[in-house]
């Protein structure tokens, strides 16, 4: 066991993992974190705590992670390369581990231009693959990136992101292979709407033997409205929303669109349970945390196994 | 070359508002080629300054000189003696040239007339593109001659981020994704293996003032007792 986290135990035991997401508030509102945490307790194995998501300042990911722990959740502490250099990152990694955080997701982060501080200096001292390698080196070799010894190495289950959709497609599985070589333990994918492309990518990963070294959690986001689907199709970089999804949402009664969105998500989850190479689902119910119990119920992933 | 952009006239006027007689010093190299600070631009700036000050009822006297390269002491020598007649200097060279000019004449205020923008190339007359951030550890060999530090908005070293969008960068659709291009060119050259290995964390040597002594010149500098 590398970290002893619940997520690691679930995956190692061969259970189909189910993780959720919690975006910290834009302020020091502790109650807001607790409110968002409540519907997730007992329904997910771990919950991603985003780090200045979409380049907007929010309560720091490690702080919100600690509140999540108090609420009975296991956090998956996200860290982006945009806002910190390698000293600050390693310091936060040690702090997070010291305070009981056991999963960490390494990301490059959205460009600062998209947030509310577009004038800021993006750091990007190291990239996400290098961050994965850094955490692994700290954990497994008890060494800092610079080579010095660590007194008490961090215990973390190391995560990364994968995007099966962005072109060049050929490169997507190579990029996964690089993250695996860097030491990633699990990856969570971009929100999946193009199932065809996802199947191809997972198959490539299986064929390359990557899925024996990394747990892939498929990213699922229920569409709340046709507007959201269109926005994701046109405006969100790296998203691949096929027209069929939009047509399907348009095909139902207006009041039923959200329900249809959940239905699509549940069908996806059912397929992922059977898909070779997929070890679980990462549910990103964006600002829809209260719907997670319902989705988990309808997708037949409850009760969550206790390991 | 180094690409610069002239500062707005209001900003330059504000810097020299307390001076009656200024010498504008152009540079004949990079900034002349990118149409920001050569002989012609010196003339234009001086007339703009004079007209503005005359209209304000506070006329200014200007002198004009353009040296071959302000980043080379040899060419700054021509200014010895000349500058003594002026209250201040305006330099139209890049930041390096401006600092060298200020170093040569420490008694007299020197003001920048341009914003030094980047190391770049000439796409078309009047159109320049950034290409290099002088990071000090060049990886162009790995990346098919496309700079990931400059051309990737996140300066990534290990391939495209999740935001890459049909060949465009996530920051906007007019900006090509550097990693898409790197992949495309390496594939064409049958060298994709280049980027399958992990590129380790970069050595950001451009964070401290750097000096270079080219091999073969060290002895001479030591003999001169300089370095
Ligand atoms: S890698 Fe560094 S030196 Fe090479 S082109 Fe890019 S910024 Fe310049
Ligand atoms: S889209 Fe491409 S160029 Fe833009 S930040 Fe991502 S990898 Fe870099």
Automatic annotation (TrEMBL), chain A:
SUPFAM superfamilies (alphabetical): FAD-linked oxidoreductase
GO CC terms, sorted: cytosol
InterPro entries: FAD-linked_oxidoreductase-like (IPR029041), Mehydrof_redctse-like (IPR003171)
UniProt keyword Signal present: no
Pathway: One-carbon metabolism; tetrahydrofolate interconversion; Amino-acid biosynthesis; L-methionine biosynthesis via de novo pathway
Keyword terms, alphabetized: FAD, Flavoprotein, Oxidoreductase
A single BP term in Gene Ontology: tetrahydrofolate interconversion
Cofactor(s) needed: FAD
Known catalytic reactions: (6S)-5-methyl-5,6,7,8-tetrahydrofolate + NAD(+) = (6R)-5,10-methylene-5,6,7,8-tetrahydrofolate + NADH + H(+)
The keyword Signal is annotated on this UniProt entry: no
GO molecular function annotations of the record: FAD binding; methylenetetrahydrofolate reductase (NADH) activity
Stated family: Belongs to the methylenetetrahydrofolate reductase family.
Protein name, entry field: Methylenetetrahydrofolate reductase
Organism: Desulfosarcina ovata subsp. ovata
Automatic annotation (TrEMBL), chain B:
Matching InterPro entries: DUF5981
A Pfam family assignment: DUF5981
Keywords: Metal-binding, Zinc, Zinc-finger
Molecular function per GO: zinc ion binding
Domain Methylene-tetrahydrofolate reductase C-terminal-like stretches: 111-205
PANTHER family to which the protein is assigned, alphabetical: 5,10-METHYLENETETRAHYDROFOLATE REDUCTASE, METHYLENE-TETRAHYDROFOLATE REDUCTASE C-TERMINAL DOMAIN-CONTAINING PROTEIN
Protein name from the UniProt record: Zinc-finger protein
Annotated organism of origin: Desulfosarcina ovata subsp. ovata
